[in-house]
Amino acid sequence: MKILKFGGTSVGSPERMKKLLDIINPQEEQIVVLSAVSGTTNSLVEISGKLLKEEKQEATALIKALHQKYNEFVIELLPEGNFREQGQEVVDYHFGFLASLANDLFTNIEDKVVLAQGELLSTTLYHIYLKSIGVPSVLLPALDFMKIDEDNEPDIPFTTKHLTPLLEGNKGNNLFITQGFICRNSFGEVDNLRRGGSDYTASLLGAAILAEEVQIWTDIDGMHNNDPRIVKGTKPIAHLSFDEAAELAYFGAKILHPQSVFPAQKYKIPVRLLNTMEPKALGTVISTESEKGKIKSIAAKDGITAIKIQSSRMLLAYGFLRRIFEIFERYKTPIDMITTSEVAVSLTIDFTDNLDQILEELNSFGSVDIDKDQSIICVVGDFGAEKHGYAAKVLDSIKHIPVRMISYGGSAYNISLLVGTENKVEVLRSLHDRIFE
């Protein structure tokens, strides 16, 4: 069985939703994971924000506007008659539910329920569309088998236990439709895998049932060797290892959700990144194998804050780094890069909600300086210790640009550079011209 995930742009209009059958083969065993229709989740986030602030009139107006868009969507997607009536009933039910929330107490629990409506709508409407054209399919509610534990980590054994009987109970059916992104938490409440979580859903399903492969269908033909929005002449990468793909996804390559690599890697399920608009393009294959001895790609991550802690007391003091890391752990703030010297530590974060409290505690260790508006540039490839000249080539490419931090050696696949965001475009282009010349 294969897992096929389609993002919001791939189901962004009735026309695109209909064209999914150019890719989906109803004769093969497949689980199709759908995101919400593009723009829907953003609208639901806005609606929920208004409800949390008790701005009920504004929320109601937004609900009505989105309801009207879906009314038009149904007319274009489904033929007149019984199937269109079914589609309209589904839309009216979900928007009636959203409207009712404006009359009740609204908390973070209801917030998660609101965000789930997009995927519930897209999958149900697509299931009705398939029925209308005579294509058999089974709608599988993700809330019945997708679960996260008390640490917000996915429970793959739970998914295997609860999904397998659903598949076996529908033998004779090849095509299954389910929701990306949404799940239940350890309390049984509706929750989610956070933004971009449909990729994660697909990877988790692949791991849970040991699928043949996971296919991530988006609007770009695979992972490129640089950001095509900034750099001209980028090319898709044919093969990446799981480790290389994880580095690129974490450090800015938007095509893939960073966490989605790990379940597939653990269970050795190949992942293909493919283009809905160009189904015949080869895309990128992510697997245990990769081409050796070459630089693969460059990615950039914005919104970075650099923190330097300088202290003469650090000299030869064991436990110093542990105490610093414990501060970030208490405030649930991940660290991206770190470099050290005898008297200072520099590190970067991208989650700054608790920055003031973190800085206050760090001040007890010595002087603290911060630099905001930074970007991490990640150069990914085969940087094993036996390779010669790659690091020099990377640094020589940007010798005319000030670099705040360099991280090399923490991984055999990555050289990371911290630069001011105002220099990001120049760094990406300079690296591309020298590395991929």
Using DSSP, what is the number of strands? 16
How large, in whole angstroms, is the Cα Rg? 24 Å
**Number of H/I helices:** 13
Round the mean pLDDT to the nearest integer and report it: 92
Please write the string of helix (H) and strand (E) elements.
EHEHHHHEHEEEHEEHHEEEHEEHEHEEH
> What is the 3D shape?
globular
Poorly predicted runs of 5 or more residues: none
Helix percent reads 25-40%
What does the main sheet amount to?
8 strands, mixed
Oligomer kind: single chain
- First-last Cα distance: 41 Å
Strand arrangement across the biggest beta sheet? 3-4-2-1-7-9-10-8
What is the percentage of strand-forming residues? 15-25%
Give the structural class: alpha/beta
Question: What does this molecule look like?
Answer:
It contains 13 helices and 16 strands. The model has no long low-confidence stretch (mean pLDDT 92). The chain has an eight-stranded mixed beta sheet with strand order 3-4-2-1-7-9-10-8, with helices on both faces. The radius of gyration is 24 Å and the shape is globular. Helix 6 links the parallel strand 3 and strand 4.
